[in-house]
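Example record

Each entry pairs one chain with its bound ligand, NDP.
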Amino acid sequence: MKPSPIAAVIGHPIGHSRSPAVHGHWLKRHGIKGHYVALDISEADFAKALELLPRIGFVGANVTLPHKSRALMLANQATDLARRIGASNTLVFRGTTIEADNTDAEGFLRNIRAGHPNWMPRRVALIGAGGASRAVVAALEDAGATDIRATNRSPERTAELVRDFPGLRGYDWSSRHDLLEDCDTLINATSQGMLGQPPLDLALDRLPRSAIVNDLIYVPLETPLLAAARARGNPVVDGLGMLLHQAAPGFFRWFGIMPEVDDRLRAAVMG
Ligand code: NDP
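Structure tokens for the complex follow.
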């Protein structure tokens, strides 16, 4: 008898991950005899884990902090998009061959377009230049953004992002309030505003009221930034949809069905 497919999310720490709830919901809903488990694997053990998992029957894995760039380096094959972003969040195992993809960019775009199907980013303020910002920049470039203004508390990371994505412009952290002028989109890709963290220190006065404001954070769903943006009339998009939409392509590859992102899933994941 063929064994049930099993996939994982690998990170360190991993206790906070909502991915098992996402994939568990889809497995149950589609009546698939499969499994999706969370694996807490340290940086020292990551390469060994990637070697072993395909051999013991895993069909693939999601990868989260701190392993995303290492996953790309250790894979045998990678999509152009994963290489351009410099990180992989979705691995498919074929025999002992590891294929790396990055579905965060697609998740980011689908999340905003779910509520704003005609959204065409042009002038974008991107606050934060950490790991997640790289997929955001690739997605914005592919969606046609021509003026991406990036800033980060630590200037080295802004410089790194500009080096890897020469089309964007880097700004000093002190000018973050001013670069919102004329923007049609504002993205928070920092951890500021997450549960347990202070709000993002950003004055919205110069942001046009028509600009879409998206926070990558999903705990809480309404960050102080989104609450402030909503209060002054900006359309807002929380980060949960990005998490849900980035998960769907992996589920399809491992379990053979393209799952739905809908309110039942949202409720199951946040409940
Ligand atoms: P990283 O650790 O790579 O980056 C963290 C970012 O937050 C950096 O830009 C960092 O700046 C900034 N930051 C941290 N502390 C401060 C501070 N006190 N003031 C200003 N900036 C600060 O994390 P990721 O890029 O992976 O994640 C960023 C956020 O995006 C997280 O909240 C995460 O939960 C969310 N996320 C959401 C996803 C989704 O599917 N919705 C997917 C991935 C991430 P510095 O370089 O100066 O430290």
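The first strand starts at residue 6 and ends at 11.
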